[in-house]
Amino acid sequence: MMDLKIERASLDSTEAVALIEALNRELSERYPEEGATHFRLDPDEVAPGRGGFLIAYVDGAPLGCGALRRLEKREAEIKRMYVIASRRNQGIARALLEALEQLAQSLNAKRLVLETGVRQPEALAVYRRAGFVTIPPFGEYVDSPLSVCMAKDLG
To answer: Is the pTM of this model over 0.90?
Structure first.
């Protein structure tokens, strides 16, 4: 039984920087094409009242992260979802996703959207199991042939 805790963190915290760097390395390896990755996330987008950045700690070790940024009054986007490879398939991503959904609801969002990639079958599976469905590309992803955009109504 693992001790899983999910906590809000600053984007510039040591743990956040390390997880984001690991995520960026993995995405750059999967998508080496020029312009294929979308790494931008500004600290003000995850500030209280606008979104949040969460870290999943298992037995005290930071093993995953995820962010939420409000796009419109009733819509928020999930960004920077990541769990270190050696700890995948243990429910960490599901727990992060649930925490991000709760955060979205606390911001009165009624719909969640996200972008992932065609070369991330494990991410696609997590999102589909959580009730996300494929939607047309939106925002900065419209012209990205490697992007898969998804959404979930929160009710």
So the answer is: yes
